[in-house]
């Protein structure tokens, strides 16, 4: 009679016992010592695991085990179900049965006598991925890993995902571990200490600080080792993953996305829930893009009662450090509302925030949004907007529990304390209606220049402005030391004939009346613009409008002043004799106006980018306008300030040499002309925005 494979292995093992005993009794002491040495040598030569094992791509009927070893080896996995762990009533209460083994339980602790099954890797290697298939749903299995015949990992256990008819599910979400290894480890240990172990872990990206550095991934996997050996993880891309190939080497996610998005966007089911992971950092998500078309079809195809979507950048985030991504909000929220998405999980912000988003109609409940980026990264300041229900700066993970039609969530700190408990129930068409009372609506936070300084974008912008403004005149001061040596006068010749006014031989320049007339006309024009600036038509009569009008008026005055200064500089270089006093005053006025314009621009930018500000309306109607006009304008607008300060410094510092040194005069003229050219870009963009007001 031919025995099944498992029984043959058991019979062979039983037959080997008396043979081994007889052989052992016959060994002499010297031979026994040599045998022990050989065994020790073989054990020492066996490969050692340097990563894992960790679970990937889990389903109700299988999972994948991955690990790495320090040397190439032949690997195998032994596994078997633990007695009494199959949840035949998995659609019931979801409580852990008394006979159910917890992750990490061993055969001896459960009394199982089920024989091991073995799956061997097809060849030798240092990286292994073995798929276990044909498993029972909602069942706990124990496993061990062997390399070169030696045990490399013992006592592992995992539980397959619940079947479609299940009504209960427990899972956790975390994001943004980065280089916070100590708090990251504390969060992981708290997840392992959960009374009801999670069935899966969702990760919102930024697992390490630099995704292109292998040693940081080694640290991340070492911190996560005990958790990932028991619970499968489903990650999505964050900006700190840097779109590196290492991410796709480390993780094996469902391959149901499009060919272009393999490993970037995907979906999977677990019990009553459908999960969707997106790449909003490195892939297009606009309507009509491959990812958007796939997402729309996937949401339409699912039949699960709960649908969860997770990705990195948060469309709702009141933190001044990383504000709401309004582009993603405008693209994704209408689609999510149409398809009754239950909740959305995001990272990027290193804090916790629960928000209520928009509604499909006034009669429908608001959509639920989370930012849960407290996985270990440096904490970031919290804010508060009308959509904010709860926000807190703390290391944490988000626990999500499904019990039939009831969903509960809570943030969990490393010490085990919970915060922001929330409960919702499914209603008609599987939409989640909050049971927890909504938080009182907070007034929209008034953005200030200080908020901009606190943000990384504002700190970089202001730092550059200060550095460039100070460095430009100091650099020119070193490059142009005082003229102590004889110079060739202008016009050329050994001497220069003194005039009636030795200090300024061209003080009676005939062009001065024209300059005065132009200055008076410009002042009248500015007064008219100040009173009738069309910018107020879009933003209304408020403090923001006044500041915006002042900024536009100042930019106009700056442009006219720099044009006058450039004309004087050209006349100076062409030895046509403008007044040095007027040139000095004009360049000083241009520098002052440029600095004031930058300050007003920063104040306006802080109000522009805040949630609920003009950026919100602009991105909803024409997001490309924001990118092309405002973002480029903000960067180009900082250049006139250091150039104007440098020009004013040179004219003041070397006023005695400008008449005599032709090269110095030409340098001043070139700088002044450059200011005009640089200023035309942000000024022209601002004028375009003004004209587009009626269209927007």
TrEMBL record:
Region Disordered, annotated ranges: 77-116
Domain called Purple acid phosphatase N-terminal: residue spans: 66-153
Calcineurin-like phosphoesterase domain span: 185-351
Keywords recorded for this protein, A-Z: Membrane, Signal, Transmembrane, Transmembrane helix
Superkingdom of this protein's organism: Bacteria
Keyword Transmembrane tagged: yes
Molecular function per GO: acid phosphatase activity; metal ion binding
Record Gene3D superfamilies: 3.60.21.10
Segments crossing the lipid bilayer: 459-480, 517-539, 551-570, 582-608, 634-652, 664-689
Compositional bias annotation for Low complexity: 84-112
Record InterPro entries: Calcineurin-like_PHP (IPR004843), Metallo-depent_PP-like (IPR029052), PAPs-like (IPR039331), PAPs_N (IPR015914), Purple_acid_Pase-like_N (IPR008963), TAT_signal (IPR006311)
Coiled coil location: none
Pfam families: Metallophos, Pur_ac_phosph_N
Keyword Transmembrane: yes
Signal sequence extent: 1-25
The protein's name in its UniProt record: Calcineurin-like phosphoesterase domain-containing protein
Species this protein is from: uncultured Chloroflexota bacterium
């Amino acid at each position: 009679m031919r025995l099944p494979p498992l029984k043959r292995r058991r019979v062979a093992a039983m037959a080997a016992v008396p043979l081994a005993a007889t052989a052992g009794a016959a060994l002499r002491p010297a031979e026994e010592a040599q045998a022990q040495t050989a065994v020790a040598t073989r054990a020492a030569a066996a490969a050692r695991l340097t990563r894992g094992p960790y679970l990937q791509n889990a389903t109700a009927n299988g999972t994948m085990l991955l690990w790495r070893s320090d040397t190439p080896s032949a690997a195998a996995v032994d596994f078997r179900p633990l007695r009494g762990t199959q949840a035949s009533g998995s659609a019931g209460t979801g409580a852990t049965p008394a006979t159910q083994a917890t992750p990490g339980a061993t055969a001896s602790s459960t009394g199982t006598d089920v024989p091991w099954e073995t799956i061997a890797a097809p060849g030798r290697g240092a990286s292994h991925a073995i798929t276990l298939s044909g498993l029972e749903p909602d069942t706990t299995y124990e496993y061990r890993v062997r390399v070169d015949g030696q045990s490399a990992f013992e006592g592992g256990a995992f539980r397959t995902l619940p079947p479609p008819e299940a009504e209960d599910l427990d899972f956790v979400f975390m994001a943004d571990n980065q280089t916070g290894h100590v708090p990251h480890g504390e969060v992981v240990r708290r997840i392992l200490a959960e009374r009801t172990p999670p069935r899966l872990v969702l990760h919102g990206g930024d697992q390490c600080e630099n995704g292109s550095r292998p040693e940081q991934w080694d640290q991340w996997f070492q911190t996560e080792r005990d958790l990932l050996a028991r619970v499968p993880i489903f990650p999505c891309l964050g900006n700190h993953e840097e779109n590196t190939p290492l991410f796709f080497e480390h993780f094996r996610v469902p391959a149901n996305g499009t060919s272009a998005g393999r490993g970037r966007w995907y979906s999977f089911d677990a019990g009553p829930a459908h999960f969707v992971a997106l790449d909003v950092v490195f892939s297009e998500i606009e309507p009509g893009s491959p990812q958007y078309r796939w997402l729309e079809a996937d949401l339409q195809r699912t039949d699960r009662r709960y649908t969860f979507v997770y990705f990195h950048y948060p469309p709702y985030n009141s933190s001044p450090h990383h504000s709401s991504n309004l582009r993603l909000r405008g693209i994704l929220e209408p689609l999510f509302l149409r398809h009754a998405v239950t909740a959305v999980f995001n990272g990027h912000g290193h804090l916790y925030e629960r928000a209520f988003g928009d509604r499909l109609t006034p009669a429908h409940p608001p959509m639920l949004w989370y930012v849960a980026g407290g996985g270990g990264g440096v904490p970031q300041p919290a804010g508060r907007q009308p959509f904010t229900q709860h926000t807190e700066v703390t290391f944490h993970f988000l626990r999500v529990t499904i019990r039939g039609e009831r969903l509960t969530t809570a943030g969990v700190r490393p010490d085990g304390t919970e915060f922001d408990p929330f409960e919702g129930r499914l209603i008609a068409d599987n939409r989640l209606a909050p049971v927890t009372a909504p938080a009182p609506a907070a007034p929209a936070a008034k953005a200030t220049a200080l908020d901009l300084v606190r943000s990384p974008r504002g700190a970089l912008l202001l730092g550059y402005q200060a550095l460039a403004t100070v460095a430009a005149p100091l650099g020119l001061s070193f490059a142009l030391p005082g003229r102590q040596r004889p110079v060739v006068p202008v016009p050329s010749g050994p001497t220069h004939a003194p005039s009636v006014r030795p200090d300024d031989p061209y003080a009676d320049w005939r062009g001065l009346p024209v300059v005065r007339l132009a200055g008076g006309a410009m002042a009248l024009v500015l007064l008219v613009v100040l009173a009738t600036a069309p910018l107020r038509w879009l933003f209304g009569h408020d403090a923001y409008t006044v500041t915006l009008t002042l900024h536009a008026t100042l930019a106009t005055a700056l442009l006219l002043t720099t044009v006058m200064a450039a004309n004087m500089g050209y006349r100076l270089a062409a030895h046509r004799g403008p007044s040095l006093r007027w040139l000095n005053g004009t360049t000083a006025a241009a520098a002052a106006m440029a600095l004031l314009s930058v300050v007003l621009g920063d104040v306006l930018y802080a109000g522009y980018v805040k949630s609920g500000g003009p950026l919100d309306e602009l991105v909803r109607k024409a997001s490309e306008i924001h990118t092309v006009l405002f973002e480029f304008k903000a960067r180009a607008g900082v250049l006139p300030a250091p150039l104007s300060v440098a020009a004013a410094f040179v004219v003041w510092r070397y006023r005695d040499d400008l008449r005599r040194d032709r090269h110095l005069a030409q340098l001043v003229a070139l700088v002044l002309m450059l200011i005009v050219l640089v200023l035309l870009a942000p000024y022209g963009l601002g004028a375009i925005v003004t004209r587009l007001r009626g269209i927007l």
